[in-house]
Amino acid sequence: TGYSWEFGTPLDAGFLTLVKTDYRNPVTPLAGAGGTQVWIFHAIQPGSTSIRLEYKRLWEVNVAPIQAVQFDITIQ
Question: Which residues 6+ apart lie within 8 Å of 45 measured at CB?
């Protein structure tokens, strides 16, 4: 389908860094079935920040994502 999750806004580098992402294929043999994307972050210091992810096609510039999520993060 060409859709993937991407950062909607840059990470706040004072609080988080992206360690890696990993895509896990679906367990079903059905064509077009979605897998799972895992994101691993490293917390740098205590505080609050957020992560905004958007589900979109990278080549479609000036097109709104079909889904967006925001995670509010508290680091202790």
Answer: 14, 15, 75
Q: Are 19 and 31 in contact (CB under 8 A)?
A: no
* pLDDT digits (tens), the chain, 76 positions: 789 999 999 999 999 999 999 988 888 888 877 788 999 999 999 999 999 999 999 999 899 999 999 999 999 9
What is the pairing mode between strands 36-43 and 16-24? antiparallel
Round to whole Å and give the CA distance between 7 and 35. Answer: 18
Q: Output the CA angle 64-33-1, nearest 5 degrees.
A: 35
The answer to whether the Cα torsion of 64, 3, 1, 61 is positive or negative is positive
pTM equals 0.83
